Amino acid sequence: MTDVINTREVVLDLLMEILENNRHSHLVLRQALEKYQYLDKKDRAFITRLTEGTIENLIQIDYIINAFSKIKVGKMKPVIRNLLRMGVYQIKFMDHIPDSAACNEAVKLAKKRKFDGLKGFVNGILRNVSRNLETIPYPQKEKNLAEYFSVMYSMPEWIVTKWLADYDTVTVENLLKAFLEDADTTVRCNLLRASKEEIIESLKSQNIEVIEDSNLNYVLHIRGYDFLSRVEAFSKGWIQVQDTASCLVGEFANVKPGDYVIDVCSAPGGKALHIAEKLCGLGHVEARDLTAAKVSMISENAARLGITNISIKIQDALVLEPKSIHKADLLVADLPCSGLGVIGRKPDIKYHMTKKQAEELAVLQQRILSTVYQYVKPGGLLIYSTCTIHSPENIENVRWFIKNYPFRMVPIENKSGFYAASMEEGWIQLLPGTHQADGFFLAVMRRQI
After folding, report:
1. 388-416 burial string, b = 16+ CB within 10 Å, else e?
2. What residue ranges define each of the domains in the chain, with the CATH number in brackets?
3. 127-164 burial, b for 16+ CB within 10 Å, e for fewer?
């Protein structure tokens, strides 16, 4: 590792930003990797692993620290608790890092950050953890399943309790395991620009590992690249970062030439651009979002991909636009949600989201649906989707909607490798650990009058 930059100190700063200042982990980490792009690839990989790993396993790490400290994690100085967290992660989860290095470097950082009087405390806790790691008394699965899952898989107990009420124990445990697995980058091929074979050849020419998706033939999983902006296929607009689950919106939309499509909460635009691609220029997509920054993301992706049959505008989905009433053959309502389906990619979501916030989001979704449904023509389709696995935001909201508005669910014509009996009713819930995709919900509804 470099003598100029202390990579552990970089991680400490990132953890302070994410865990103490409540900033989004993927944004903070991306900015740091751009700042330190001159570092060796191994150093940047270490920064990424230690930052993401500490956040992903935070509940278990804090449990371990509390088992050895009279001062509980929540009462510690922020710098000290995050030094201990990253130290415990190295000891427990990074076999190639000697325990002595994890302890010594934490002590050095405590001293450097003006906590000389606490360096003995840091050293004592970490060396105690190292010596007694195999004898830590974890919660017993048989006595309290929710607590056991919460600690062992670092998931807030209120979320675990909700999932255990919705799904069987095996499904929940597979879901929790999947969220802790390393996630590849999933991309959709832009077949208007290049063939799948050309795209794979381009990726492999840059020594990028490519795995073809087993459910959608135009989706690839890639790993081993350095910066996405330096990937030729990305800069040429041949690929768009988009999970397999998200691609199902465009796949199940069944758009036809001449259709007018409105996507009311579109940023960063993956679904809208996918649908525009499927129209092959013989129809139009109107992509909307709330702020200039979000609209700018859609515009940048559209320009890079070379998609022209799309217009992009700032529009609050809660405010009715009279000119759009009965205009859409298809309305895409991929609405703000708790995000509990993408924890594997954005692990800090599980700590920021609360039960109350999730309940408030379900109400917000109802408010948006009560407004935007008016844009759908009689006989037109509305696709409702979220990137969560929280039932009040998903099937419960759909059932509320069709009870109160002139829509009915329609069977989903399966054009993918995914199958669920619920597709015959008109909806599907994807679950990591069960399906090869992010957690995602989708329902297809047709307007009657």
Report:
1. bbbbbbbbebbeebbeebebebeebeeeb
2. 7-135 (1.10.940.10), 145-179 (no CATH), 185-241 (3.30.70.1170), 245-447 (3.40.50.150)
3. bebbeeeeeeeebeeeeebbbbbbbbbbbeeebbebbb
The CA angle 31-35-40, to the nearest 5 degrees, is 115
Q: Look at residue 317 and tell me whether its pLDDT is greater than 70.
A: yes
The pLDDT value given to residue 343: 95
For the record, the structure tokens of 356 come out as 């109350």
The single-letter code of the amino acid at 161 is: T
Burial of 123 (0-12, 13-18, 19+ CB in 10 A): middle
Q: Which residues pair with 262 in a beta bridge?
A: 286, 331
The β-bridge partners of 260 are: 284
**For the chain, what percent of residues have pLDDT higher than 70?**
99
Q: How far is CA 102 from CA 87, 89, 130, 131, 294, in A?
A: 5, 9, 10, 13, 41
Residue 143 has, within 13 A of its CA and on its CB side, a CA count of 4
d(CA 18, CA 29) in angstroms, rounded, equals 9
Give the residue from 45, 123, 44 showing the smallest Cα distance to 91: 123
pTM summary value: 0.93
Q: How far apart are CA 318 and CA 96, in angstroms?
A: 52
Assess contact for 220 and 213: CB atoms under 8 A. yes
Q: What residue type is 200 in one-letter code?
A: I
Check pLDDT > 90 for residue 383.
Answer: yes
pLDDT attached to residue 415: 79
- Look up residue 361 and give its amino acid: L
Q: Find how far residue 379's CA is from the centre of its chain.
A: 33
